[in-house]
């Protein structure tokens, strides 16, 4: 589903308000998030078809057609993407997601609970996860009203307030009734993606085969969790996997180390990586990733990175994904701020309390 991930990144704010629209009206970030979530609850079943064009400069590099089936009663959804001679099909039955690539003749399965909002499959669901990530980096405003496939829409513009944002400038046209993004355009540097629905049936009929993939007999479904499963390890085993001591937080009255996982990546990545999960009051607070530092220095080639001093070391912070990163003694540390109330300033302060895994 390589091409389809673009849609979520360029569909920023499908719903902004429940009443009428005034041109050039600007909403606060809090209002945008609140209204969008309220609108999402009212989205019903639909079948839709759309077209997506990707550009580098003025050159169109890819054209894809997309078909979607969404059953609001069961939460099931199906997505088909046709690009060139290839077709990718994906079905989410509420319990698992199975994706089949026709050209590669490969099928993968993933538990639906492991995907979350960012991987929900349709522009509407994906934009929920993105909206909160850009509220501090973009100016969001309603610039007018328009019509897409004979439906009245609100034209929403999201403009970067600082250069280098991960999500770029966006224009969106959201259906005034269903809050579905019917058309979107996003520009990041020389790259541009346009998406538009060409058909929308809001009273679809589904049968028992709609949300079932009919795979060829010679195609075996592979579970993504089985390809490179994470192993739960002890602190001593984690240190052995890194072949060196590393810094971490011990459990305290402030945070609790809920567990340590080890991924032994092969292929192009070819490294061991630790993930330490921390909670506060039994709620996920942040996670710490540790792996051997790559040759690329912090800040090279990543959009939206801002310099940050942490533990007396030059690091970076990516606001769009709430991630803090730095290199220390040959290891790269990445902290993902998971709790919405945890600020980067608090995280920097907490970092001063990290201890070495090396036994004294």
TrEMBL record:
Q: Which InterPro entries match?
A: LolA/LolB/LppX, Sporulation_related
Gene3D superfamilies, alphabetically? Lipoprotein localisation LolA/LolB/LppX
Annotated coiled-coil positions are none
Which SUPFAM superfamilies is this protein grouped with?
Answer: Prokaryotic lipoproteins and lipoprotein localization factors (SSF89392)
Organism domain of life: Bacteria
Signal peptide range equals none
Protein name, please?
Answer: MucB/RseB N-terminal domain-containing protein
């Amino acid at each position: 589903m390589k091409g389809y991930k673009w849609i979520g990144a360029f569909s920023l704010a499908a719903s902004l308000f429940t009443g009428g629209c005034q041109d050039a009206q600007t909403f606060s970030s809090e209002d945008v998030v609140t209204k969008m979530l309220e609108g999402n609850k009212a989205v019903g079943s639909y079948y839709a078809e759309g077209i997506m064009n990707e550009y580098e400069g003025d050159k169109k590099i890819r054209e894809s057609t997309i078909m979607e089936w969404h059953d609001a009663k069961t939460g099931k959804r199906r997505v088909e993407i046709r690009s060139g001679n290839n077709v990718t099909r994906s079905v989410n039955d509420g319990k698992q997601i199975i994706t089949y690539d026709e050209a590669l003749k490969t099928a993968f399965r993933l538990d639906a609970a492991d995907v979350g909002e960012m991987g929900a499959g349709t522009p509407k669901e994906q934009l929920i996860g993105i909206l909160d990530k850009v509220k501090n980096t973009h100016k969001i405003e309603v610039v007018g009203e328009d019509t897409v496939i004979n439906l009245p829409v609100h034209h929403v513009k999201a403009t970067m307030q600082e250069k280098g944002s991960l999500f770029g400038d966006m224009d969106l046209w959201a259906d005034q009734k269903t809050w579905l993004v019917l058309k979107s355009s996003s520009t990041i540097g020389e790259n541009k993606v346009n998406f538009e629905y060409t058909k929308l049936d809001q009273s679809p009929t589904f049968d028992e085969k709609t949300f079932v993939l009919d795979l060829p007999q010679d195609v075996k479904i592979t579970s993504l969790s089985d390809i490179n499963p994470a192993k739960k390890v002890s602190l001593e085993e984690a240190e052995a996997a890194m072949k060196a001591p590393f810094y971490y937080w011990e459990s305290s009255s402030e945070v609790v180390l809920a567990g340590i996982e080890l991924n032994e990546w092969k292929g192009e990545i070819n490294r061991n990586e630790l993930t330490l999960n921390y909670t506060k009051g039994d709620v996920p607070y942040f996670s710490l990733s540790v792996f051997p530092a790559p040759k690329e220095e912090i800040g090279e080639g990543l959009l939206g990175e801002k310099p940050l001093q942490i533990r007396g070391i030059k690091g970076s912070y990516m606001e769009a994904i709430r991630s803090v990163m730095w290199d220390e003694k040959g290891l790269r540390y990445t902290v993902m701020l998971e709790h919405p109330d945890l600020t980067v300033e608090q995280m920097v302060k907490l970092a001063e309390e990290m201890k070495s895994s090396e036994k004294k």
